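Table 4 source record.
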Amino acid sequence: MEIVPSKVSTWLKENKSFNWLDVRRDDEREICSLGGFHIPLDQLEARFEELPRDKKPLIVYCHHGVRSLYATQFLKYHGYDALSLAGGIDLWSLEIDPEIPRY
């Protein structure tokens, strides 16, 4: 259900194909982003079908990893290959990319 930042970083270095999904609020995304699709968690139920259903996993992220866990469970229930980024964008900033602002 979860994937640690170091594993995703390895996937990036290996050019493994996946999609990012940011489930944070709009104001949080303005502070920093890892890119990818953006559907705030409170809109996911109404908008999840906008996401691609290709073979690529969705790496779902939020600030600390709580909202992304909920989103991942929801997406898996609807047939998506989804993993929650453990520790969210905050842990990504601490472990992988200090250029990503912490808030």
